Amino acid sequence: MNDKFGIKTMLETEEGILLLARAVNPKVPSMMIDAITLLSALCILPQPVDMHEQVLVALTQRAEMDEVERFKPILDGLKSDTSVALKELHAQDNEELLVHLLLFEEYAEEDSAELKNRFEEIRIEMDDFNEVFQILHNTVKDSKAEQHLLSILQHLLLVRNDYEAR
Prior knowledge:
The structure is a single chain. By secondary structure, the protein is an all-alpha fold. The chain has three domains: 3-75, no CATH class; 93-124; 126-166, no CATH class. The protein has helices at residues 3-12, 16-22, 29-43, 51-66, 72-91, 95-124, 129-140, 145-157. The termini are far apart.
């Protein structure tokens, strides 16, 4: 297999990295693994300059095409691969492995409970208007949603000063 020729050709085309980013599809796990492996390798290449930036731009463009978050396909692939792998491991007849799996699942449940508690604490702090606005603003800052939030706030300013309308 001539990997150098393929990578060189891909880097010479304008949409080469984007095509590779579009191959990150959790529905086709083997292709996704190969695409992620190549994208990871591109990120550490010394030349051309800022390859990691180009990979991030390609992942962002791909996400915008599919209207999803940038790393959602990667996370979906990890989730499905992890659940399949855990099922396969549980099916094996190895007592020591089962002990480790039970420990893993116990820690996963503890982590999940801790994460839920953190979100509960955040909800408690939602009583102050300024804090809520700051959290909301920081969440959408420098994203596509920032302009939408601004538009919503501008429209709220147009609500009539009428008790019944509010």
